[in-house]
Amino acid sequence: MTLFSKTFGAASAIAMSCAAVAAQADVLFWSTQARPAEEAQAMTEQVLSGFAGGVDYQPNEGGPWLTRLQAELQAGSGSIGVLGSLHGDFSAMNPDDLVDLDDLGVSSASATFDTLAKLGTDNMQYIPWMQASYIMAANKEALQYLPEGADIDALTYDQLIEWSANVHEAVGEPKFGFPAGPKGLKHRFFQGYLYPSYTNGVVRTFASDEAVTAWEAFKSLWEHTNPASTNFSFMQEQLLSGDAWIAFDHTSRLAQAFNDRPDDFVAFPAPAGPTGRGFMPVLAGVAIPRTAPDMDAAKELVKYMLDPATQIATLRATNFFPVVDVALPEDLPPSVKAAGDAVAKMSGSADANPGLLPAGLGDKGGDFSQVFVDTFERIVLANQDIRMVLDDQKGKLAAIMQESGAPCWAPDAASDGPCPVE
Amino acid sequence: MTAVATPDARKAGRWLYVTSVVLLCAWVIVPLYFLLINTLSAPEDVQSYPKAFFPAFDMGSLSFFVTFNGMIDALLNSIMVAGLTMILSIAIGAPAGYALSRFDFRGKELFRLLILLTRAFPLPLLALPLAVMFIRTGLDDTIIGLALVHTTLAIPFAVLITFSLFSGIPMELEEAAWTLGCTRLTAFTKVVLPLILPGIAASAIFAFVISWNEVFAAAVLTIENRTLTAFLLVKLSEAPIHLKFAGGFILVLPALIFIFAVRKYLFAMWGIANR
Do A19 and B144 make contact, defined as CB atoms within 8 angstroms? Predict the structure, then answer.
């Protein structure tokens, strides 16, 4: 019993003495980005160490991030100084809870991003912080099976399917990898890549005949997709383990493959469909909640994050690209070079069909993505009739658009009022 | 027909027994073994298969965490929160368990059910109002505040375990003590308490493990004083695989050491439960 009572005693003694730890004066940077251990460490040591006031960088999962923020807003006081998150998280918030940031005098180099950052108001609710995109990556082993005459930098969806089929036949197992796992970003592929490439729209064309063709194409791609894909969420892992030879994912979720074995993998643009090469950006921003304890320090930190030197340090730490005009240095990590090249080729291609992030959905953003996830699961995993599923899901999508009142965004043609599902 | 088993049947029975023991041990040990091997492998070897039986003792993955800011503080916080949770849940749970087993009172069954209700609501649902209240009362971001939440989670187990322990001790023992001059209190401290101490220790271990493993409340209710689980888990779920193994190892190790240290009390409780 002695050891036990000792443990009891020691624990309680330490607990009592430490219960009242003095609050730190550092600005608390409450973020959903740069969560992985190495990225978080790099943010603290390389990106934020240059800030004069001192920063406590705390990355979190979306759930605790939002719960804590809401608690502080409801309580009317808090410790969070600066928020860092994706556009979608900010657009689900009440703009009144975020401090207007126009007077800081900083903004991104993209007028589109700055407009998104106003969240439908007249003022900047957050400042664009960094951007990324989704690209393709392949093991160099797979290159020998490229279809005749196919250029890897200008693939079409048909060529991608043929390529995956060739690999499947040659190796004896399906080697296309798709992040369809619980944490995978599959919905972004449908919203920003498949739909724009086949239907030149996302919402208007959701249940069109072209959409049926798109899903048929995706189903034939799925035949050559590793069936374990429903467990894949970070394709860098499967690229490294060899479970996938050709993969689609977020640039920062492919980074480790390029950094660990730069000579074994290639990055290339997403494929093109009948209506062009659809692709979509990822936009993260920094904002200040109205309950920030030290408003001036928080504003200084936001300004610091937009500084060109900070932006380059952020690129090295997180594989997210700058949103301001900067001259990129030569000695960047392999993942940054690979992803940067692929994104440049994608946006510079003759048939580029850039889409925007869903905007104006407010807190319906999650439901919007769920429609695409459900459609995928019913058509591809449950093998239900495409036309029937699309007609069925169309009603849900239309209800979400009506409820949120969100107007169409590119590549859908502009609308008066809520974007219609045709 | 005799009741004595034939040598063949006895042999088969022994074989079945040994196999089950081996299987059960493997069930626990193999994952821990792989965790250890991968923790001590070089990052590039983690993906490779089959594994060497003896680890390469590459400290690369572990040394990353040694230099990780705030690890030690988070470890201390975790120990303190878990220790406090242990003390509080036993201090509150054991008397309730005693009352449930020894006294009849109105609404006893309802009370037993209500105790379980604290586990009926998912924490993400409770976390928001709790956090608002904690911020307003100043409990926010303190060890005690978090320990209180974890105590609430651990109490149902503490009450139910101690209830069954007290029920296993014959009332006659206590009554005999009373006739020999003990008061209700001294009968309890001199007769009942020594008998159930191992069981109490076991339910304390349970409280410790519950607190050690809890993430959501810890992530919402603490900012500067993070627990190890909240501190590491968020960063591990998306980290490269060799760091996941190393981090998992770091999370498992203290709990393993703790359980190893108190294992004899745990076994003693099973002895009581078998009576």
Answer: yes
pTM of the model: 0.79
Interface test with A, best of B220, B259, B264 (most A CBs within 10 A): B220
User: B201, A63: Cβ pair inside 8 Å?
Assistant: no
Q: Please tell me whether residues A275 and A367 are part of one structural domain.
A: yes
Q: What is the 3-state secondary structure (H, E, C) of A242-293?
A: CCCCEEEEEHHHCHHHHHHCCCCEEEECCCEECCEEEECEEEEEEECECCCC
Partner residue facing A71 (CB), from B43, B135, B232: B135
Angle, CA A261 vertex, CA B55 and CA B71 arms, to 5°: 55
More confident residue, B46 or A370: A370
Residue span of the structural domain in which A273 resides: 133-281+352-404
- Same domain membership, residue A210 and residue A142: yes
Q: CATH code at A254? A: 3.40.190.10
In a domain, A10, yes or no: no
Per-domain boundaries in chain B: 7-61, 70-274
Pairwise CB contact (< 8 Å): A15 & B247: no
- End-to-end Cα distance, chain A: 74
pLDDT at B202: 81
Q: Which residue ranges of chain A lie beneath pLDDT 50?
A: 1-4, 7-24
pLDDT digits (tens, 9 = 90+) for B184-227: 889 888 888 888 887 888 888 889 888 988 888 888 888 888 88
Number of domains forming the structure of chain A: 2
Q: How far apart, in whole angstroms, are the C-alpha atoms of residue A302 and residue A30?
A: 12
Among A416-420, B12-16, B236-240, B265-269, name the one with the lowest average pLDDT: B265-269
Whether residues A39 and A101 fall in one domain: yes
> Which of A15, A41, A72 shows the shortest C-beta gap to B68?
A41
What distance, in Å, lies between the first and last C-alpha atoms of chain B?
32
Contact check, Cβ <8 Å, B132/A14: no
pLDDT value of position A301: 95
Chain A residues inside the 8 Å CB shell of B149: none
Q: What is the C-alpha to C-alpha distance for residues A60 and B220, in angstroms, rounded to an integer? A: 9
B70-274: CATH topology is MetI-like fold (1.10.3720)
Which residue from B minimizes the CA distance to A43?
A: B69
CB-CB neighbors (< 8 A) of A234 in chain B? 238
Most distant CA pair in chain A, distance: 78
